[in-house]
Fold this sequence. Notes:
It contains 1 helix and 10 strands; from the N terminus they run αββββββββββ. Strands 1, 2, 3, 4, 7 and 8 form a 6-stranded antiparallel β-sheet that branches. The protein has a 4-stranded antiparallel β-sheet with strand order 6-5-9-10, with no helix packed on it. Mean pLDDT is 75; it is low at 20-56. It is mainly β. The chain has one helix at residues 3-25; strands at 51-56, 59-64, 75-84, 87-88, 93-100, 107-110, 112-115, 118-124, 130-139, 142-151. It has one domain: Immunoglobulin-like (Sandwich), CATH 2.60.40.1930.
Amino acid sequence: MTRQMKYRVISILLLICFTSVLVACSPKEGGNTNVGERKVSAQEEHHHETEHEVEQSSVIIHLSSEIPKIVSGQETVFNTHIMQSDLPLTNAKVRFEIWKEGEEKHSFHEATETGDGNYKLAYRFEQPQLHHLIVHVEKNSLHGHKKFKINVRNQP
């Protein structure tokens, strides 16, 4: 194989990799790229119970809370543990994106790092209805996220 052919093969492979990254990071069909707002398709949504994990770009996001017991008007504390390459991910920017079912306006809330890859957010859901939550993790060029559905109940 000549040197020129090797360069062509490498160039094609790099182009394929770059295109794959662009496609994977682009908004979904019908998505809205405005800051603070995002539309979510039915294919993106997943329903989970109490403990959750995702591996994305070598990042594991573990959310632990009393999700089945969330009641409107009461403060809920979400604890999330972030790992990368089997080590706690520290000094990351962790945000919770929250919105009500059927609404396009999303709110973002910064989580507080409590040490060793642990982050927490206290949040009060004001209305009993289905809500959506995405945990976003960013550090340098790394970005991972995990989506959840939360059914907020009426106060007893």
